[in-house]
Amino acid sequence: MKPTISFEFFPPKTQKGADNLIARIKNDFMPLNPSYVSMTFGAGGSTQNLTKDTILRMKAETPLKVVSHLTCVGMDKDQIKTLLDEYNELGIHDILALRGDPPNGGIDFTPPENGFTYAAELVCFIKTNYPHMNVGVAGFPEGHPATPNRLVELDNLKKKVDCGADYICTQLFFDNRDFYDFRERCELAGIKVPIKAGIMPVVSKSNMERIAELSLGARIPAGLIRAMNRAATDDAAERVGIHWATHQSLDLLENNVSGIHFYTLNKSRATLEIFRFLGIEEAGGI
């Protein structure tokens, strides 16, 4: 099977931001013919409503398969079921089921009353009530800070797969050796679902530091740090990040990756450049 190529976006905070994102998806990403696009889910209030509306617009206004992230944060079981019922009725049958990050940062997570504590519980709920839905889950090649060790973490991942998860999408990483080690450990643990690699191009020095925070401490290889430090301008730093992500992608494709999931940060230039360097005009050309 050909590897899947997918793009991830985060929810806009305003209606104008949503309009701009939809336009960018149509103009820049849709011509690349991705396997699917995904949207992270804003927790709480107006952000949650705008996120849902944007996801529904992506579904209605493009021919793309849309994957909605769904977390255990900010919604109880009844609210999650109401949302899934709406998605199901409108033809959104693809979910990335996550525990989600605590709303105030940190590691400790307190679930809502009558809510889910773990992603595995959410996966079981979806697969029990909506068995036709395709459900992905998160994997962490470099470990998750809330998990005491890799063995416990792999056991947690196995529980999600045993509950019916159809594939794993990894947190971003910058050293492919971390991904290959993770993939081998999954295989040894009896996890046989496809594992898609998460790639995010660094576009500036400050962006590199911010990514490390957002990704729960992704390791920045010394080679990437040296190359970014040598970059004299913002454009040069962006080229370093694009070339690094391109080489990662080429190596992954040569080593039979099941899919590559690009974290776009809602920007198109870096991803389009990676595709150009890969020598392909669309995801289906891989």
UniProtKB/TrEMBL annotation:
Source organism, top-level taxon: Bacteria
Pathway: One-carbon metabolism; tetrahydrofolate interconversion; Amino-acid biosynthesis; L-methionine biosynthesis via de novo pathway
Cofactors: FAD
Single GO MF descriptor: methylenetetrahydrofolate reductase (NADH) activity
PANTHER family: METHYLENETETRAHYDROFOLATE REDUCTASE, METHYLENETETRAHYDROFOLATE REDUCTASE (NADPH)
Family: Belongs to the methylenetetrahydrofolate reductase family.
Name of the protein in its database record: Methylenetetrahydrofolate reductase
The species this protein was found in: Candidatus Thalassospirochaeta sargassi
